[in-house]
């Protein structure tokens, strides 16, 4: 069972260690949310946490991605082509693609 304890002019929550371990909260910043009948405590999720390491591991395992220069030069399409319009895209021979 968790207990409220006085910390200066504030209140803190003392959570038993087995609950902290089971919820995997050890050393993490916590997010507090008011819910209908109480308080929800969850780990604060950081956007893109760990992505850099995962990308580096993927590059090390599979090599650097080849950049498609034609795709980068192509202007972004704001709406689909209408059948009566001429496509501004360069002609491509799809059979020649790998």
How does this structure look, described?
By secondary structure, this protein is of the alpha+beta class. The protein has a domain at 3-43: Pemi-like Protein 1, Chain: D (Ribbon), CATH 2.10.260. 23% of the residues lie in helices and 22% in strands. The strands form 2 sheets. The protein has a two-stranded antiparallel sheet. It has a two-stranded antiparallel sheet with strand order 3-4. It is elongated, with a radius of gyration of 27 Å.
Précis, in short:
The chain has about 100 residues and is α+β, with helices and mostly antiparallel strands. It has 3 helices and 4 strands, in the order E-E-H-E-E-H-H.
Main sheet properties: 2 strands, antiparallel
Q: Spell the H/E element sequence.
A: EEHEEHH
* CATH fold descriptor of the domain at 3-43: Pemi-like Protein 1, Chain: D
Q: Measure the end-to-end span.
A: 62 Å
Low-confidence stretches: none
The strand line-up of the biggest sheet is 1-2
Average residue pLDDT: 78
In CATH, what is the class of the domain at 3-43? Mainly Beta
Using DSSP, what is the number of strands? 4
**Rough outline:** elongated
Topology summary:
Layout: E1 3-7, E2 10-14, H1 17-22, E3 30-35, E4 38-43, H2 51-62, H3 69-73
Antiparallel strand pairs: 1-2, 3-4
């Amino acid at each position: 069972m968790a207990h409220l304890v006085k910390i200066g002019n504030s209140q803190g929550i003392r959570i038993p260690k087995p609950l902290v371990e089971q919820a995997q909260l050890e050393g993490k910043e916590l997010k507090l949310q008011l819910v209908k009948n109480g308080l929800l405590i969850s780990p604060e999720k950081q956007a893109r946490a760990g992505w850099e390491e995962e990308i580096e591991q993927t590059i090390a395992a599979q090599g650097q991605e080849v950049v498609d220069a034609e795709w980068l030069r192509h202007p972004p399409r704001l709406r689909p082509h209408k059948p009566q319009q001429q496509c501004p895209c360069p002609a491509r021979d799809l059979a020649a693609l790998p």
